[in-house]
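Progress note, project year one: complex with zinc ion.
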Amino acid sequence: MLWLISRCAASEARPTTKEASHEPRRRASPLSTRPWLERWPGVCCLSAAVTTLLALLLSTAPWPAPDTQLHVLRLPPLASRIRIAVDAGHGAPGNTGNWGCHCQREADETLVEAMELSRRLRRFGFTVLETRTTEEGTKYPARIAAIERFKPHLVVSLHTDARADAWPIETHPDGGVCFANRSDPGFSVLWSEEGARSVVRARETWGRAVSEALREAGFLPYSGDDYGSLYKTDAAPACFVDARPMKQRVYFLRATSVAPVVIVETHHALDPLEVARWHDADTHDAFAAAIASAALKVVEQR
Ligand SMILES: [Zn+2]
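Model obtained:
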């Protein structure tokens, strides 16, 4: 029911800004606006009511509702020969990424996510390189160099999205205002199609395997509605290819060539429910097992 109330509140509120401290490359595009919802908020509520009734009948509500169960995928015994580089997105000097619904910084969230993921992957038996372990991390060229020296089989960089329009949700004592958008939760997987065909194929294989494992674990695939022309939609759900003008393309996706690199936008930083789920150990357990499962399929075909 909390889910129903929050969805309706989101549709009835009027946006006061389209910027909302978004990460610059995630700004709302015209494709992401939903004027019919703004004119007819009751349609959303009616639709949400029906959805919620069905969800109640099934004794569950969609992700990221608090009672939605994630699954920790079962893993076969692992050998430590698989090397994976885990990048905590942003955190280079002057680069903190987006601001979420509690004014949390993307760089801080991804640092926690990367540390949680790395710890679990090591426990599974992987050999892990963490490219950033502090709040003020190294610059990206140094991270790329470290990855090149590590010679990983796979690289994953963790980020969060700040999608579409947002509404004020919190005012802090210092006068700062945080913005929220309870629509558009879910994960996405991004990669670049620049470079040799074999390299691009390896990224596709890794990215699609990650998406499949995350969906199998119960994470919600993001539709990509707000990406507009920034990304091309891949054949697999929640998978997207960087399609910005050449000089604006994501540096990290282009710069590492020794292993397939993907970015996982783990969740929508403006969605309070999804943010709360990502502060839950169960979510990190399910996420890490999904990444491990995908890595095993890609590297060892099992
Ligand atoms: Zn980011």
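Residues 1-45 have pLDDT under 50 and may be disordered.
The longest helix spans residues 197-217.
No further modelling is planned for this target in the current period.
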